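Deliverable D4.2, example record:
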Amino acid sequence: MTIQRLNGSFDRWDELLDLILSSFAYMDGRIDPPSSAHALTVQSLREKARNEIGYVALDGDQIVGCVFCRAEPESLYIGKLAVLLQAQGKGIGKRLLTFAEAAARKRGLAILRLETRIELVDNHTTFAAWGFSKTAENSHPGFDRTTSIEMRKFLT
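Output generated by the structure prediction step:
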């Protein structure tokens, strides 16, 4: 497996979008509001890659994972971490996060930050095993209940 930075030469946006949508499909009907992944398009992914730090995981020629990272004043925000369902449990997500950690350190940031939906308890457990701790509970606009939790990993 190889990890590549998304750059101007990447041209497999349809496949990348399919990976994200299929990886996030299990959330449909489980989370409210629905995942923002549904709003992604090929064009918005291209824009995301221009404005953020993106990585794709390849097993041979097959796209099996991705992550997008956005620099914030105190942290690197981790978003759209996705691994192909058939490839989950093989360390791909954790490996993508090591690239995010290196990107954070390169920018002088000592914290990785992410948000995960309150209903996705298995994700909370996985992120905790990868060194993240819950730091806040948040609500999406228009909701009067907690809809997501924030987790942070402090880099050493």
